[in-house]
Amino acid sequence: MSAPTPKSFAHRLFIKPSAVISAVWLVVLLLAAAFPRLFTNQDPLYQDLLATLKAPGFKGHILGTDDLGRDVLSRLVYGSRSTLWGSSLALIVALVVGVTLGLTAGYVGGKVDMLIQRFGDILFSIPALIILLVVYSVFPFNIGAAMATLGVIFSASLSRLVRGVTLTTKEELFVPAAQVSGLSKPQIIVRHLLPRIMSLVIVQASLLASVSILIQSSLAFLGFGPRDPQPSWGGLIRTAREQLTAQPWLLVAPGVVVALTVIALNIFGDALRDTATERWSISKIKRRGRASQQLHRTPTPAEPRPRALLSVQHLSVAFPGEDGPALVVTDVSFDIAPGEVLGVVGESGCGKSITAAGIMGLVPGRGAVTAGAVLFDGQNLAELSPDQLAEIRGRRIGFVSQEPMVALDPTWRIGRQLAEAIGHHRKLPRAEAMVEAVALLEAVNLPNPEEIAKRYPHQVSGGQAQRIAIAYALAGNPSLLIADEPTTALDVTIQAEILSLLRKLGTDRQMAILLITHNWGVVAELCDRAVVMYAGEVVEEAAVSKMFHAPLHPYTQGLLRSNPHLATKGKRLPTISGSVPLPSDWPHGCRFCDRCDQTLDVCSTAPVAVSTPLPDHLVRCVRADETVRALQMSATVTHTAGSNS
Amino acid sequence: MRRLILKRLAFAVPLLFVVTFFSFALVTLSPTDPARIVAGPYADETRVAQVRTDLGLDRPLVIRYVDWVAHAVRGDLGESISYAQGVSVTSMLNARIPTTLSTIGSALAVVMMAGIGLGVLSAVRGGGAGRAVSVFSLLGLAIPGFWLVLVLTKFLSVRWRIFPAIGFRGITDSPWQWFLSLVLPVFAISVGPVASMTKQTRDSMLDALGRDFVRVMQANGIPRRSVLYRHVLKNAAIPLVTLLSINAVSLIGAAVVVEKIKAFDGLGSLAVDAAFSSDLPLVQGAVLYFALFVILIGLLVDVSYSFLDPRVRVQ
Questions:
Q1: Using a CB-CB distance cutoff of 8 angstroms, which residues of chain A are in contact with residue B158?
Q2: CB distance from A282 to chain B under 8 Å?
Q3: pLDDT for A6-32, tens place per residue?
Q4: Is B249 exposed, middle or buried (0-12, 13-18, 19+ CB in 10 A)?
Q5: What is the DSSP secondary-structure string of A126-190?
Q6: pLDDT tens digits for range B201-256
C-alpha cells in the first residue's frame, strides 16, 4: 500500500462538499451578525404602518413585512445577533465547565471522579427547558443568565466525553513518560491531553450549538427572548403565529433559517468527525469496493461423485478490493464420504473458514463464491437460491463455531433457543420441541439438562456452552457437521471431552464431520483424512496416518515439525519462518515458496498443479516425486537395517 | 430486579434535591420580590414587610428549604401567588397532569414505534431506504417542533379544519376528540426524537447483526425473519431503552412549548405562565412534578431493561 501524502486537516476537511456548503452558510450567519449592513439596508425597528403584513417582494421588502410594517429580512439578519450571541455564551460556558470537569475527573480519578460523574447524571436527566423557565422567572429578560445555565446543563455531555478520552490517554505511555521527565500535572494536561481532546470537543460543540439554537428559539418563541421590539428568530416565529391567518408567509423565512442553521451545524460536525477519524476508518474502503465491482460467478458443471456425501469442486471465493476482486480461496476441491471425519488444517488466514462459509453459501460481507461446485447429496449448493440453501442448512448441514460463549443469543433461555431450532427443522409444536431440546442436551452429555434448559447463555461455562452449541447444530439431525475450530477457545481438559463427544456423535448418528483446525492433535484424535490448506489453496490431502508418517508438502512438514504434541523433549520447537501473506501479496508461482526451505528456481515462475505421486495422496509441489523417492529410500534403509539386526 | 429499582430510587433522591434546591436558591437571588407581588404595587413598605413575615420569607434560605421539603413530602407545595389567593399549588398541578400525561405518553409511544420501525427498515433494507432514513433524520432533528405545529395547524386546522386548532379534550370526555386534539402536537414534537431514535435503532441493529450468534443461527438454518425480528431486534433494543429515556427528557421540553401553542391546560403551559408572572411557588412545584416525571420514566426504563436483558436480571 502506498503511503498517502500527508495533507493538512483543513485540506482534508474542505475537499468534502458537505463541509464546504455548511461552512459557507455558517460564515454567512456570522457575517450577518457582525455586519448586518452587508445584507440589508433596512432598519429592523422601523415601522411602516401603511405597509403591514405584506407578502415577500413587496416594494423592496424581499421577505415582506410584519404586523407593524417592519422589514422581515432585516429583522432576521439583526435577529441572528441575539441567537448567535446566546448560543456562543452557552457554548463557552459548556466548554469551560465541561472540559475542566472532564479533565479533572479523568485525570484525578477516585472520589472526585465519582462526584463529578453523579453530578453529570443529574444534569443529564433534567429537562433543560424547565430549568430555564425557573431561571427566567427569577431573572426576567436576562438571556445571559438563561444561556449560562444552559451551558452548565450541556457541560455534562462534554465532561463525559473528555473524561473518557482522558482516561484512555492517561493509560498510554507518553503521559507517565512526561511525569518522569518532571512536568507538573497542569503542564501535562495543557501540553499532552488538550490537543488529544480538541477534535472530539469541536465535534461535540457543533452538535451542542445546534441544540442550543433550537432551545433558544423555543424560549424566544415563548416570549422569553430579547425584549420587544428587539428582533430574534424565535420572536419572529412568535409574531408569525399571531398572524397565522393574516400572513402565513411570515412563518416561512424564520423556520427555514433555523432549520438550515441546525442542519449546517450537524453536517459540519459530521464532516469534522469523519475527517478526524478517516485515517483509521475502514468504512471508506468498503464503500469504494461496493460501488465499483459486482462479483460474478462462473458456472462450473459438477462432476457426479456417487460415493461422496459432499464434494467440493474447484471452489473459489473472492472479496471486492480496491484493485479489483481479491480471491481468498482458489480452486479448492475435496470430498467427504458419509460418516467420514475430514480435517481441514492450516494457519489462520489460509482460507479454511471462508471455504466452509462458501460451502454453506454464507460468505460474509460482500464476498461471494466466484467459481466451482458444491455437490451435496447430488445437489449443487452453489446453484441454489438463498431460500433453498436455508432449507439445507440446519436440516442437512449443521454448524458449530469457534467461540461458544457468543454463539447463542444472550437474551433467550437455552432451552427455548434450542426448541426454536428443533421446532423449525422438525416441524414440531412448541411443547414437543421443548421435550426434544432437553433430550438433545442430554445427548451431548450435559448433566441436569432440564436445569440447563432454563438458564441463559451467560450462566453456563465455556465447555457447557460448546456442548450446547453442538446440540444446537444437531437440532435438524444433519448428515454433515461443519465445526470451525470447535475446541480452540477451550481449556485443554475440556478440549478432550468435546473431541470425544464429537467422535461419539459422529459414529452414533452416522454423521460426517468437516473439522476446521490448526491443531494436529485434534486431527490425530478425530479425523480419518486431512486436507492442508495454504494461502487459499489445497496443498496436500491424504489419510491422516499417511499425512503424519509421510508428509509430502514442505508446508505440511513444517506444520508437523512445529507441532508441540510431536516435539522431542529438550529440543527447541522448530517453526516455519514468516507468516501467511495477505491475498494481495500471494506469489505468482508456488504460494509457499517465500517461506519454503527446499525451493528450486521453477517454484517462483508458474503456479504449481496438484499431482498424486502416491495413491490417494494429493500434493501441490514441484518436488513431490523427488520427496516420495527420498521417503521410499529411507523407508527401505530403515527396513533393511531393521531386518539385518 | 428489586435491587435495580432500589438503585434507581436511590438516584432519585439526589436528583430531586439538586433540582429543587437549585430552584429554591435561585429564588433568593431574584431581583423580583414575591412579597411585593403578593402585597400589590400600591402597598407601602410596612405592608410588604408584613407580607414577607407572613410568607416566612424573612427566614434563612436553608430553614425555608427544609420547611418547604417538610411540607412537600406531605403533598403541600404552598399557595400560588399569581392566581387567586389561597389556591394550593398541588391541586393546580394535579388538575393538569392528565393533559401532559396524554401528550408526553402518546409522543413516547409514537417515538418508540415509528423510531424503531423506521430504524429496522433502514437497517434491514439498506440502499435507498437507508438513504431516505438518513435524510429524514437530518431534517427531523433540524425542524423546530413548535414551528412544525404552526405550519400543520395552518393547513390542517385553519384551512381544512380536520384537527382542532387549539384546546385539549379529555379522553373520558370524548375519546375521538381527545385523539384529534392530540394528533398535531404529538406529531410535531415527535418528529425530532423519532429521527434520532431511527438513527440509533439503525446503528444498534447493524451492530447486533454483526454478532457471532447471528452467523451461527444463519448457518444452522434459522429463518431470516426469526433471526432478524426475534433475536437481532431484541438484542438491538437493549441500548435503545436508555436512548428512549434520553428522548423522553427532551420530549418534556418540547411538550412545554407545544402545550403553550395549542392552549393545552397542561403542566407545561402552567409552568410557562408561572414563569412569566414570577409565581415562584408554582414554578417550584412544576419543576418538582417534571423531575418526578423523569424519575418515573427512569424506573420504567429500568424495568423494561431487565425484561430485555437477562444479564441484568439473573446473576
A1: 244-245
A2: no
A3: 567 788 888 888 889 999 999 999 998
A4: buried
A5: S-HHHHHHHHHHHSTT-HHHHHHHHHHHHHHHHHHHHHHHHHHHHHSTHHHHHHHTT--HHHHII
A6: 888 888 888 888 998 999 998 888 889 889 999 888 888 887 888 888 888 888 88
DSSP A38-59: GT--S-TT---TTS-SPPTTBT
Non-local (6+) Cβ contacts of A544 within 8 A are A343, A523, A524, A527, A528, A529, A530
Residues B135, B195: Cα–Cα separation, whole Å: 9
Q: Which of A127, A223, A248 sits opposite B154 (nearest CB)?
A: A248
Residues β-bridged to residue B79: B88
* CA–CA distance, B169 with B269 (Å, rounded to integer): 15
B294:A456 CB<8 A: no
CA gap A101, A159 in Å, rounded: 6
Q: Is residue A339 within 8 Å of A506, Cβ to Cβ?
A: yes
* Beta strand spans in A180-309 (E): none
Residue A217 has its nearest CB partner, among B144, B216, B275, at B144
Among A171, A357, A373, A264, CA closest to B139:
A264
CB-CB: which of B32, B238, B257 is closest to A222? Answer: B257
Chain A partners of B213 at a C-beta cutoff of 8 Å? 406-410
- % of chain A exceeding 90 in pLDDT: 24
CB contact under 8 Å between B226 and A420, yes or no, is yes
Question: What are A379's strand-pairing partners?
Answer: A376
Using the beta-carbon criterion (under 8 Å), do B291 and A126 form an inter-chain contact?
yes
Question: Of A480, A485, A504, whose CA–CA distance to A495 is shortest?
Answer: A485
Q: Where are the alpha helices (DSSP H) in A297-427?
A: 352-360, 386-392, 414-426
**Nearest residue to B34 (alpha-carbon basis) of B238, B280, B227:** B280
Most A-contacting residue of B213, B261, B306 (CB-CB within 10 A), to test interface: B213
Asked if the C-beta of A20 comes within 8 angstroms of chain B's C-beta atoms, the answer is: no
Of B141, B222, B257, the CB nearest to A394: B222
Sign of the C-alpha dihedral, residues A209, A211, A214, A218?
negative
Apex B182 CA angle, B200 and A258, nearest 5: 55
**Number of helices (H), then strands (E), in chain B:** 14, 0
Fill in the amino acid letter for A468: I
pLDDT tens digit string along B102-152? 888 899 889 989 998 998 888 887 677 778 887 888 888 888 888 888 888
Element (H, E) at B139: helix B127-142
Q: Which three cell numbers stand for residue A335?
A: 470430498
C-alpha to C-alpha distances, A39 to A20, A51, A77, A239, A359, nearest whole angstrom: 21, 21, 7, 22, 67
Torsion from C-alpha of B205, B208, B209, B213, nearest 10 degrees: -150
Q: Is there a contact between A270 and A276 (Cβ–Cβ < 8 Å)? A: no
Q: How many CB atoms lie within 10 A of CB A197?
A: 23
Cis peptide before A229 (omega within 30 of 0): yes
Which pairs count as long-range contacts for A401-404, CB under 8 Å and 24+ apart, including other chains?
A: A401/A469, A401/A484, A401/A486, A401/B212, A401/B215, A401/B216, A401/B219, A402/A484, A402/A485, A402/A486, A402/A488, A402/A489, A403/A489, A403/B212, A404/A462, A404/A465, A404/A466, A404/A468, A404/A469, A404/A489, A404/A490
Other CB atoms within a 10 A radius of the CB of residue A125 amount to 22
Distance from CA of B269 to the nearest CA of A (A): 10
| Residue type present at position B240 | L
Listed by number, the residues of chain B in 133-192 with a beta carbon closer than 8 Å to a beta carbon of chain A are: 138-139, 141-144, 146-147, 150-151, 153-154, 158
Measured CA to CA, the distance from residue B38 to residue A443 in angstroms comes to 82
Contacts of A513 (CB under 8 A, 6+ apart): A340, A341, A342, A480, A481, A482, A483, A502, A506, A526
For A214-224, letters b (16+ CB in 10 Å) and e give: bbbbbbbbbbb
